[in-house]
Amino acid sequence: MTTIHFAAARTRLRAWLWQGGAALMLATSLVCGPSAAQATVNNPQKMVENTTHELLNRFAKDRSEIEKHPDELYHLVNDIVVPHFDFVHMSHWVLGRRAWSEMDRKEKTRFVLAFRELLVRTYATALLQYQDQKIDFLPLRGDPSSGHVEVRSKVKESGGQSIAINYSVHQRHGEWKVYDVNVDGISLLSNYRSSFADEISKTSVKQLIARLEERVKKKSPSDDQSKGKASQ
Question: What CATH number has the domain bearing residue 182?
């Protein structure tokens, strides 16, 4: 998945997390072999590597067109990244059992769609800042037969600094799905959960959903990027 310029952005990462804008970040230039697609089915680490490889190849190939029409980046992320995330599980967890159980089916659907769109737009904004950082994958943590593992990596900057980016992955209906991303010790879901719980306590779930839906109406990744820079 993708990364930003980490040497200049360690403190910014934490700010983005608290603002509800943590990037789902990972970058690599690994080339997968011809049997990679089949290996992905039963190998969570290959799933992360292969998705990364496909995304960055497409981004490099279409970059000039994307720069002219930034909203095309949303389609790219939706096509390649979204199928590998368990947004229903993520939505349930960030809201908490009580809030989730009090929502009707329509509200749950609206929240999942808005939360998914928020993450897609955050991811796309991060991808615009991709600068060929190098990544090293570390040994998988956990036993795949348990259905829950952590794909670990370190992204290296040209200056020698590195940052840990780890993916929590579980198996659902025979496929591996990402359900959390930990960036330099900061959990994406934990930060959203804290932020959403605070907002719900002051307003309501209905108002949270409405705010998220309004937030994701932005026209292009460049809008999000400009807002992120302005808030730094």
Answer: 3.10.450.710
* Closest of 87, 108, 88, 94 to residue 198, by C-alpha: 94
Instruction: Kindly state the helix (H) or strand (E) to which residue 6 belongs, with its residue range.
Output: none
The residues with which 170 forms a beta bridge, in sequence order, are: 148, 177
**Domain limits at 149?**
6-230
Question: Mean pLDDT, the chain, as a whole number?
Answer: 78
Report the distance separating Cα 85 and Cα 41, nearest Å.
14
Q: Do residues 209 and 107 touch, judged by C-beta distance below 8 A?
A: yes
- What CA–CA distance (Å, rounded) separates 7 from 9? 6
* Residues 164-184: tens digit of each pLDDT: 889 999 999 889 999 999 988
Query: What pLDDT score does 134 carry?
Result: 76
Percent of the residues in the chain that have a pLDDT greater than 90, as a whole number:
42
Domain count, the chain: 1
- Within a domain: 63: yes
* The token pair that represents 20 in the structure block: 């509800």
Q: Which residue type does 185 have?
A: G
Residue 183 lies in a domain: yes
- Indicate whether 110 belongs to any domain: yes
The predicted pLDDT at position 32 comes to 32
pLDDT at 224: 54
In the predicted structure, residue 231 carries a pLDDT above the cut 50:
no
Contact predicate 103/137, CB 8 Å: no
> Is residue 1 situated within a structural domain?
no
Residue 181 in 3-state DSSP?
strand
